[in-house]
Structure formats: structure tokens, C-alpha cells
Amino acid sequence: MKQQRLQKLIAASGLCSRRHAEQLLLQERVTLNGHLAKLGDKADPELDKISVDGSVLNSNTETRVLLFNKPAGVITSCHDPHGRVTVFSMLPDKLCKGLHPVGRLDADSRGALLITNQGELTLRLTHPRYAHHKTYQVLVEGKPSALVLSSWRHGVMLDGKTTLPAELELLQSHSSQSLLKIVLREGRNRQIRRVAEQLGHPVLDLQRTAIANVALDALPEGCWRALDEREWTPLLKITKPSMC
After folding, report:
1. Tens digit of pLDDT for each residue in 94-104?
2. Which of 48, 80, 106, 205 is catalytic?
3. 205 noted as active-site residue
4. Can you tell me whether residue 99 is helix, strand or coil?
5. SS3 content of the chain, % helix, strand, coil (to 5)
6. The pTM is what?
């Protein structure tokens, strides 16, 4: 087998994302054939012994990908020091070993969240250079004008940088609140909530309904299902660069 960079092998093992693997190398927590490894080192997983924190890396872990319908109020984390309910506290203990959430969904929001042991999948769906998309249904205060909707579609200044163009459809509208469908190809921190607030229509409810081609459909809130290979493999083929 051709040699590959250690951070890619660590991520592919399901231990963590590639970005986190780079940090492990910088923190001198990885050894290669008994010697301290550094960022940039390469190895052949069939011939070389890679260890993280003294434990030998398992490169033969079966890929597991779960789709979880996160309720509002649940933290997207493995553990929470404040004792709040986390995504992993809602899953069977035997299922959680080696898994990590793909990206984040803030505590006040609900909907689709992927959980996996596949580091390459995590990279593809969280790194800004890949043009994946996420779909949301968002309930906002008031009735956004055509001008507001146009501004949101074309991009709004946020933290000194204009947001990427978004797909936005007005699904329902009343004087007191409106339901929007929004498709984003970037994921800044609490982006939808912050843009909605800035445009004068604060979010009342936010649900992520799909991540790329993986949709919640009829999956009940608080429940999960395992994706089969035909569902998650296309996510690894997202290669088109984003416009950021």
C-alpha cells in the first residue's frame, strides 16, 4: 500500500477528524514505529506501527455513520462539563465508542446531525473548501419583505465578510411569523440566527432537514438510524471548491 500522511491515516481509522489528528501530532502524542512522529510524516498502515497516546491505531475499523434527529436543548458533544444532555447521552453506550459528531448544531437548534467514526467523511463535510450544502426550515418573526429576502439570498455582511449566496424560499407567511426554506453552502457560527437578527426577523425555530443528500424524512426527533454505504459514500465525492 502506498504511504500516506499520518493525519490522514489517523482520521481514516475513525479516531478523530484530520484536523484533530494534526493537533495530536503537534502535541507529540503520536509515535511511528516507536519513535515520536511529526506533522508531515508518512506511513504504510500495513507495514508501520502507528500509536496514539500509547494505543496502537486500528486501521481496519468498519465505517459507521449515523443520522440523528437532534432535539432542541441537546448539546452537540461527546461530554459536557456542566452536566447538560448531550447527543451521546441519547445513544446506546455500546454504539458510541469511537464515534464523533460531524460539525455542530447549536443547542437551540434541532434536526439532522451525522455521527461517525469516518475521519475523511468529517473532513469533507466540515472543511470550507468543499461545496456541500445543508438545508434548513426556519421560522422567523414577522414577514420579511422582498428586499430582505433578496439581500439574504445574495449575501449579508457578517464579521467583516459577506456570506456566500444562499437559496431561500418563503414557504408560509403571516403577519406575526414566516416559515423559510434555506440552503447554505457554508457554516459560520450561528449564521442563520445572526443574519436573521441583523435583518430584523429573529429566529423562533430552526430545524436542519438535510445534510447534502441525506435527509431526515420521517425520522422522529430524538431518534437515529444507521446509514448504509450507498447513502454515505456520495458524501466522500464532494470535491467542488466553495466560493470562499
Report:
1. 887 778 888 88
2. 106
3. no
4. coil
5. 25, 30, 45
6. 0.77
